[in-house]
């Protein structure tokens, strides 16, 4: 059984059928960092190309620098949609026609033609407008008089001048938001209201069409830029032989659906797939479903050629579809369910819809809350259909738990900073967000440090039991983390972290900045106050100072006062020059810091980045210092930093400066394992990251804000066109419709996100929030509070942290026995082998090639001399002849040898060629070669093994095995052939001795004989006795 992601399956599919898919057989998959880098290069190439200067001018006139960068980021995020447009519309004319249809524009319309058509007034229309102008001008109301004057002036103007007056004229009928004015005329002028309404409709249509046309022009310019970036990005990937994750899906879909080889590929796959299981099916994108459909198509073709029981099994819950930004479409889940149901039943097979209404995770109080929330139509929208029974049942009905809704943290008039603080003192304003973080931190501290019992397990609550879920990564996370640390509660931090924002990584990077430029005073000051130079007592809170004292942590680092004394009144000297004066005082914090930095400055030019930082974190104690100051949570960032340094060293020239540039450029993000409970710490994460997880106790603090549409670009659902309107005044009706549709989609996903958040809690759920602008009424907080208002008793308000509503369920069965925790077990004794030094490496550490033994090779003439070149060519010819001629009959060998020599060595004199041919042919029939060149002998035989603790790996030119003996032949092309056997070079004898020893292991019952065939002569010499003498010595 193969368990893989869909991307992994697509990769293996494309590797198996690369030619059919039209991809490189040896492609690599591009990771996120590599894709970002190539996209950035593609953007740079396109934006600098003169061909796109006009498009770029149009775009930049409508954006500032920050908006432009965000717009580019949006376009690169939607590269797959750009690819679909590029594939669908092959010509600019086809694309323009699609835009005109989508925006309800007349074919070939321009801004000038639209205005000209509006200003071309018929006689009937002109007569009605003149009457309206007269009536309005005679009105006593100033507004009517002004409108009458504008209408009269517009009608009096020449037809060619009217387009210039069109905006002023249209303002008579339309508001600034492009709606028809609610009071076109005053009461005394109502006789002309019908004609004014007709003209208002025409003005509105004209203005909307102009906006639509401008939208089309902006969108096509942006589309040209996006398509060019896509094409350049595709070319860069092709140059490197890589594919990104979108390519895997798109190429696999194209292979299985539309390629000429689709039927063949499906036929080959059909024999190996009997069952398909799709997990998290509600978050599967339409393109991914298309691949699954293609794979399963043969499942339902009736009995087929084989009577196999083949199944498709999809596990998913549309109520938990929360990853629309990754392409998930919850409606697609339902469409595919109906599709496969129809396919299965049409094939005469059995289909099962398995409802999942029992919750094995949550206690009754939590499940009751979910059911009550889903009874309201507002939070139900997008989660369950109006007529669907979405009632949940708890499997843990007899176990205790609770749901609390706290009062909103309100704004106070005195939420202000103190008028003055010391420049070195960081202050935190008392906002509703900060106060709620303090309130939750106090509640968690009481649970963890006060010995509060978790009823269902009858044990004290631990920090690892608590999960805090937020909708967005915002300032609340930092506030809560700080407050928990202040109270001594371990906290694991956020689930995702951009590595360059972690304080430990920042310290390591600024250390690199200083080592590259010691004159950088700010970098040096930062390093001096980092854990790398120790920890001062005034750096710690009271709680942390107590923990440091109990752990025996020395508090002898550089303090703020030390740094001030170092920096103050130093004249024109750099900070490092001033620090050098402390070299004679090594016992002071600044003296220790100077020696530390002096050591590193002496190494920085001699070490690769990985080696340098390994030295800092290892022998220099940097890792221990960071953990002592920041906690074990810093290890994730440090390990990832070192992994990036190692990867950089292996792939790039070793340069500390380039490494730091690469870090800051790529902005790598690390993802903590959300199920990692090794630190037994409070987990803070987004609801998206919590999908699939649970915790006994869950806090929901970020509940009183509604989602907003932040995209600057919109994509039509029907034809997938790009629409870009950078500001409200530029939006046409179609864009407004797309924004409204996007708002509905986001609201539905917002409701599903609430469902996921509520169902993460196993025993306790705490819902809180803070006041924000607008005071929404359909947010999470309001939905939960309204749902519980008539069912949960008022909990009163006995203190600042007291809840407003509390819904409980009692523990009516014995608590489940708690499993033994690993940290409570006694550690296993260290094995004996761990206390012994590691044995020496075998000799040699790498395989010994017999053709390159430890002894020196025989002296050889320069390969550039004429004689040496001739000997080498002669040796190659003899090799070829000895390989080919044995396959022929004896009578045919000489002629074949002459033909081969003529082809391979046409410049060889005829007499020499004839002599060489005769020598080789006679060699084949020599007594010592009898049977060696028969068809059953072996050529180029690879051998490997161990001889006297030495690994041997080589290749024997010829091996002949008979009943009683094994003969080994090695060809030598030396120009000097030894006159006697004893003159054979020592290296050759050692080589044959190694081969002989290996063959004796293979053929222990046979005699092994050794021969050298000198191709210069050619001549065969047996050296078996000489090899035996070497073996004895």
Q: Could you explain the architecture of this structure?
A:
- It is extended and about 135 Å long.
- The protein has six domains: 85 residues, no CATH class; 88 residues, P-loop containing nucleotide triphosphate hydrolases (Rossmann fold, 3-Layer(aba) Sandwich); 200 residues, 3-Layer(aba) Sandwich (Rossmann fold); 174 residues, PCRA, domain 4; 137 residues, 3-Layer(aba) Sandwich (Trna Endonuclease, Chain: A, domain 1), CATH 3.40.1350; 64 residues.
- Helix 27 packs antiparallel against helix 29.
- Strands 13-10-14-17-7-18 form a six-stranded mixed β-sheet. The protein has a five-stranded mixed β-sheet with strand order 19-20-21-22-23, with helices on both faces.
- The chain is α/β, with parallel strands linked by helices and 1033 residues long.
- The chain contains 37 helices and 23 strands.
- Helix 15 links the parallel strand 3 and strand 4.
- About 2% of the residues have low confidence.
């Amino acid at each position: 059984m193969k368990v893989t992601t869909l991307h992994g399956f697509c990769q293996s599919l494309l590797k198996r059928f690369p030619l059919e898919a039209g991809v490189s057989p040896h492609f690599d998959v591009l990771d996120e960092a590599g894709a970002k880098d190539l996209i950035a290069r593609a953007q740079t190439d396109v934006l600098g190309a003169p061909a796109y200067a006009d498009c770029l001018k149009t775009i930049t006139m409508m954006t500032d620098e920050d908006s432009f960068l965000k717009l580019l980021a949006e376009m690169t995020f939607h590269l797959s949609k750009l690819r679909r447009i590029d594939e669908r519309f092959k010509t600019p004319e086809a694309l323009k026609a699609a835009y005109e249809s989508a925006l309800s524009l007349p074919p070939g319309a321009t801004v000038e033609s639209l205005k000209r058509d509006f200003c071309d007034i018929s006689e009937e229309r002109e007569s009605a407008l003149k009457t309206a102008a007269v009536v309005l001008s005679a009105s006593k109301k100033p507004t009517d008089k002004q409108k009458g004057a504008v209408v009269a002036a517009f009608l009096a103007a020449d037809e060619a001048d009217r387009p210039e007056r069109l905006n002023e004229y249209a303002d008579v009928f339309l508001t600034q938001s492009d709606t028809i004015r609610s009071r076109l005329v005053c009461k005394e002028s109502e006789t002309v209201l019908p004609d004014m309404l007709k003209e208002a409709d025409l003005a509105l249509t004209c203005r909307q069409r102009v906006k639509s046309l401008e939208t089309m022009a902006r969108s096509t310019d942006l589309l040209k830029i996006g398509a060019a970036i896509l094409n350049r990005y595709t070319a860069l990937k092709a140059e490197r032989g890589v594919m990104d994750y979108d390519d895997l899906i798109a190429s696999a879909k194209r292979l299985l659906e539309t390629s000429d080889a689709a039927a063949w590929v499906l036929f080959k796959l059909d024999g190996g797939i009997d069952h398909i299981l799709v997990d998290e099916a509600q978050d599967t994108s339409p393109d991914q479903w298309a691949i699954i459909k293609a794979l399963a198509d043969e499942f339902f073709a009736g009995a087929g050629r084989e009577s196999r029981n083949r199944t498709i099994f999809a596990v998913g819950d549309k109520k938990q579809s929360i990853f629309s930004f990754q392409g998930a479409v919850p409606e697609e889940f339902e469409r595919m369910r109906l599709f496969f149901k129809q396919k299965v039943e049409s094939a005469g097979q059995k289909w099962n819809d398995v409802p999942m209404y029992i919750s094995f995770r949550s206690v009754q109080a939590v499940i009751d809350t979910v059911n009550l929330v889903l009874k309201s139509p507002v939070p139900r929208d997008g989660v369950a259909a109006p007529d669907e029974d979405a009632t949940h049942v708890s499997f843990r009905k007899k176990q205790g738990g609770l749901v609390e809704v706290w009062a909103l943290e309100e704004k106070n008039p005195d939420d202000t900073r103190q008028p003055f603080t010391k420049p070195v003192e960081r202050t935190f304003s008392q906002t509703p967000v900060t106060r709620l973080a303090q309130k939750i931190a106090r509640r968690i501290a009481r649970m963890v440090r006060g010995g509060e019992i978790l009823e269902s397990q009858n044990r004290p609550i631990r920090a690892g039991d608590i999960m805090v879920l937020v909708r967005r990564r915002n300032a609340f996370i930092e506030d809560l983390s700080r407050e928990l640390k202040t109270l001594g509660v371990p906290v694991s931090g956020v689930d995702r972290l951009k590595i360059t924002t972690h304080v430990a990584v920042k310290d390591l990077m600024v250390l690199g900045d200083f080592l590259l430029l010691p004159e950088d005073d700010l970098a040096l000051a930062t390093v001096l106050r980092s854990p790398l130079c120790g920890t001062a007592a005034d750096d710690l809170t009271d709680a942390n100072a107590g923990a440091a004292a109990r752990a025996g942590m020395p508090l002898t680092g550089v303090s703020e006062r030390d740094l001030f004394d170092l920096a103050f009144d130093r004249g024109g000297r750099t900070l490092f020059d001033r620090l050098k004066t402390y070299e004679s005082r090594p016992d002071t914090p600044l003296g220790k810091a100077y020696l530390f930095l002096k050591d590193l400055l002496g190494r920085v030019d001699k070490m690769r980045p990985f080696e340098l930082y390994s030295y800092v974190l290892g022998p220099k104690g940097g890792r221990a210092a960071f953990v002592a100051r920041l906690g074990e949570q810093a290890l994730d960032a440090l390990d990832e930093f070192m992994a990036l340094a190692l990867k950089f060293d292996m792939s790039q020239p070793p340069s500390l400066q380039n490494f730091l540039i690469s870090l800051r450029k790529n902005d790598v993000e690390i993802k903590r394992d959300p199920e990692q409970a090794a630190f037994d710490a409070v987990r803070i994460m987004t609801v998206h990251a919590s999908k699939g997880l649970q915790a006994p106790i869950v806090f929901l603090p970020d509940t009183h804000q509604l989602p907003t549409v932040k995209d600057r670009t919109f994509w039509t659902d029907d034809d997938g066109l790009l629409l870009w309107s950078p500001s409200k005044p530029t939006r046409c009706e179609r864009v407004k419709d797309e924004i409204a549709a996007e708002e509905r989609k986001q609201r539905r996903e917002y409701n599903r996100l609430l469902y996921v958040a509520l169902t993460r809690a196993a025993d306790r759920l705490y819902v809180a929030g803070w006041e924000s602008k607008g005071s929404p009424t359909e947010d999470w907080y309001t939905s939960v509070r309204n749902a519980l208002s008539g069912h949960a008793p008022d909990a009163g308000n006995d203190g600042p942290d007291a809840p407003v509503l509390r819904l409980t369920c009692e523990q009516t069965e014995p608590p489940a026995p708690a499993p033994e925790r690993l940290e409570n077990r006694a550690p296993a004794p260290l094995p004996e082998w761990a206390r012994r030094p590691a044995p020496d490496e075998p000799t040699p550490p790498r395989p010994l090639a017999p053709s390159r033994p430890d002894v020196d090779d025989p002296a050889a003439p320069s390969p550039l001399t004429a004689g040496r070149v001739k000997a080498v060519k002669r040796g190659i010819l003899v090799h070829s002849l000895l390989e080919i001629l044995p396959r022929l009959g004896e009578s045919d060998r000489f002629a074949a040898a002459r033909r081969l020599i003529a082809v391979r060595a046409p410049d060889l004199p005829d007499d020499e060629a004839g002599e060489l041919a005769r020598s080789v042919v006679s060699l084949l029939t020599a007594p010592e070669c009898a049977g060696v060149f028969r068809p059953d002998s072996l050529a180029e035989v690879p051998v490997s093994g161990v001889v006297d603790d030495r690994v041997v790996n080589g290749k024997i030119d010829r091996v002949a095995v008979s009943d009683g003996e094994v003969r080994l032949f090695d060809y030598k092309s030396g120009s000097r052939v030894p006159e006697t056997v004893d003159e054979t070079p020592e290296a050759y004898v050692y080589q044959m001795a190694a081969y002989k020893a290996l063959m004796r292991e293979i053929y222990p019952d046979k005699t092994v004989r050794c021969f050298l065939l000198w191709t210069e002569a050619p001549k065969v010499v047996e050296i078996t006795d000489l090899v035996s003498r070497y073996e004895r010595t």
